[in-house]
């Protein structure tokens, strides 16, 4: 790749580097991660590239210039800033998702406590609160048990979430992966996933849950996707 | 509406804009909300208006000038600051409460975890600690299951809280709404509602609760409403 | 009382005003209190007086000059700074303790969640962790159910803690009161009381607790009272 | 010891004083300690010395110069900075570990809530989440019940962890001790120990745990020790 190509890539990813780097602070703010765990990535608009956290670097040391630029096979683009660093050890899973789900613009992975607790039982989170109907449109599903080293985590995410309303999957004995239209949206899904995992856990510890009727879930999900928030053009 | 009318409204709401905007930081301070969830509103003294949070705006971006001014049917007052924004998606419920409960000066809604957990079981919180007797005068009741889109949430709040000592209601499968003599008082009720929801949940996980005798509840509630705090005139 | 008397009192309490005011921030730091709940007091060395938090004032607004000076019957000393304010609604209980336990130099009251949860079941906290043996020398006892309005809370604290190793008592359906050789020591007891209440609650949720042998408890308590920390003279 | 010897020691420990002092803020950041509890130590490279927190000093008052330098019998080195202070009351246990485990460069002790809760039941934490397989290579074991005053705590740590994959041991009815190749690594183990103690506790409260197959645990542990993070030479 020529210096010119690299310069063009850097121009294309400049804003996303900042955004992905900044979004990691949401993970620490909501206590979704400890130590160097967890990672956020974002797809580079119009290119077969994504930007992801480096591996094993402390949250305090993250900065736009140490985010790593990868192609959709998870290979680091040589010559780009941060390319001397290894990307997140979950890079293969992120890459697999971007390769197979073109509508996805952001991916997040954490080991947040309550979501990981459901994952340790391989149990989906039932939809018993309206915030969950709004955000996930029903239960949060469990993905297969898969370990790092090949495409099995990525494949498990894609197989579970394709055609599913939920933007979150609890990978068995592991933790949540979330997707979104962009990195910010995937981070929101990670935050909400832990929040509903906690609320529904606490609720069930106290006794029998009351289900929400399916038509109410459908109606809430539909409204939230289409009506909630500020009119799109002004945002 | 003339420019003169708008100016008069802005003068009437200036202090309340600041207060309602600031009070949202109590919701984040006590971890009652995540992401853009939750909302506070306050009635404009002497006018059929209230001030409420805009929809889907992040807590860090809230400011007096983006609070939205609505009439008691929940319509945004055109020309006022913030009127280019959609008000909170719970505006209809707030408006209904102001329309039907003239003594209410503030309304708060959150999905705080422990209160939402009781709501997911549609179970009232029993009054087993004196702080709850002080603040709520007995159990915190559950309101009906109602979804956004018409007046059913507002009606459920009003029907449940009218004539009730409690300033908090757990809307079924949804979360708490609280009312108060002003917005600050409703925020205090939201904070205390989550606190007692958590304490009583934890207490019951450990075994049998011991009830407080009704006459002690009555006596505590009476004292707290009438004696607690600084003498009224000096505050 | 002459202006001269007042000036002498203010001189005697100046340092304690600062200390008691500052110590309240430990209660918020460790999340032992919400809203305006909780209070710290300290006995004025060499005088039948103590300094206590004003009633219903927010933690952000506490300052040395709004701490209230009371005699050991709980009467505010007229003319002292802060005397235009009502003292904490728990002043009578603090005063009763100072009157009947001359060795006590500080009293703290909170509604901290886990301690209040044990109190709602009127169940003592068993001593199953060494930190609890160190600090409390055995279980944390439960006091009687008593409501505000007369000396019954103070009497319950004194009757329960007199001759007891524990510096904390869980007043039934209410919450913990702690005592100490000074206000700082009582605050430490309040912090540790909630910490062990939480740890032992969590431990028991998971299954059977293993008791610590009594002679080990005795030995730990003895060492902690006499050996722990820096040599006394240099501190 | 001559002034020259002392100066040489101070030069050798200067960086480690700063590091050990700073690392204590990780314990408070992750809420692993309250009040003056908990302690971190680090071995001085190339010397039979270690640096440890002073006893009973508040976390806000820790600084490089009040860290205490000890030999491997736990004796304070006279004349060094901080030598007028008593070292942590757990110094004998740290010293025992350094004496008997030459590969250990850092030791941490806390009473963190969830880990202490497993310890109060004397129950090992089962390995049901991949983060635990990565970090600890299997279950976190329980050590014997031992109280302060002789070498029994140190001996319990060494006997339990020698030849074990886990860098954490839950001392019965007491709390976790963790070891690492240096102080930073031992702090990471303390943070992760509490995190997995919490996640697995929550998971089991909700129902049956699904175990991770042993060969997957082995594979994850091997990868994490050898592949994770940045290439060694560049760090």
Topology:
The structure is a homotetramer.
Chain A: H1 3-29, E1 39-43, E2 49-52, E3 68-71, H2 91-100, E4 106-109, H3 113-120, H4 130-136, E5 142-143, H5 152-161, E6 168-171, E7 175-180, H6 183-205, H7 214-226
Parallel strand pairs in A: 5-6
Antiparallel strand pairs in A: 1-2, 1-4, 2-3, 4-7, 6-7
Helix content of chain A: 40-55%
Briefly, what CATH class of chain A? Answer: Alpha Beta
Based on the structure, what is the oligomeric state of the protein chains? homotetramer
Number of domains of chain A: 1
Sequence of secondary-structure elements of chain A: HEEEHEHHEHEEHH
Could you say what the CATH topology of chain A is called? L-fuculose-1-phosphate Aldolase
CATH architecture of chain A, by name, is: 3-Layer(aba) Sandwich
Q: Using only CA atoms, what is the Rg of chain A?
A: 18 Å
Strand content of chain A: 5-15%
The CATH homologous superfamily of chain A is named Class II aldolase/adducin N-terminal domain
Largest sheet of chain A: 7 strands, mixed
| Uncertain residue ranges of chain A | none
Secondary-structure-derived class of chain A: alpha+beta
| Shape summary of chain A | globular
The total beta strand count of chain A reads: 7
Give the termini separation of chain A: 37 Å
* Mean model confidence by pLDDT of chain A: 95
Largest interface: A-B, 31 and 34 residues
- The total of helices of chain A stands at 7
Strand order of the largest sheet of chain A: 3-2-1-4-7-6-5
Cofactor (chains A, B, C, D): Zn(2+)
Family (chains A, B, C, D): Belongs to the aldolase class II family. AraD/FucA subfamily.
InterPro entries (chains A, B, C, D): Aldolase_class_II_sugar_metab, Aldolase_II/adducin_N, Aldolase_II/adducin_N_sf
GO molecular function, one term (chains A, B, C, D): L-ribulose-phosphate 4-epimerase activity
């Amino acid at each position: 790749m020529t210096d010119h190509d690299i310069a063009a890539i850097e121009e294309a990813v400049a804003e996303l580097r900042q955004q992905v780097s900044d979004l990691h602070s949401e993970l620490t703010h909501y206590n979704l991660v400890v130590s160097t765990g967890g990672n956020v990535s974002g797809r580079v608009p119009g290119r077969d590239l994504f930007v992801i956290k480096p591996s094993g670097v402390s949250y305090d040391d993250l900065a736009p210039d140490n985010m790593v630029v990868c192609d959709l096979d998870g290979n680091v683009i040589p010559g780009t800033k941060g390319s001397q660093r290894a990307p997140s050890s979950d890079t293969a899973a992120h890459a697999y998702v971007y390769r197979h789900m073109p509508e996805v613009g952001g991916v997040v992975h954490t080991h947040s406590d309550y979501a990981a607790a459901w994952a340790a039982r391989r149990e989906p989170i039932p939809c018993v609160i309206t915030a969950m109907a709004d955000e996930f449109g029903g239960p949060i599903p469990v993905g297969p048990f898969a370990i790092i080293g090949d495409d099995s985590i990525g494949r498990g995410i894609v197989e579970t979430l394709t055609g599913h309303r939920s933007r979150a999957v609890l990978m068995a004995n592991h933790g949540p992966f979330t997707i979104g239209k962009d990195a910010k949206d995937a981070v929101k899904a990670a935050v909400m996933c832990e929040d509903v995992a906690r609320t529904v856990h606490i609720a069930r510890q106290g006794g029998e849950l009351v289900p929400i009727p399916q038509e109410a879930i459908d109606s809430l999900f539909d409204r939230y996707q289409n009506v909630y928030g500020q009119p799109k053009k002004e945002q």
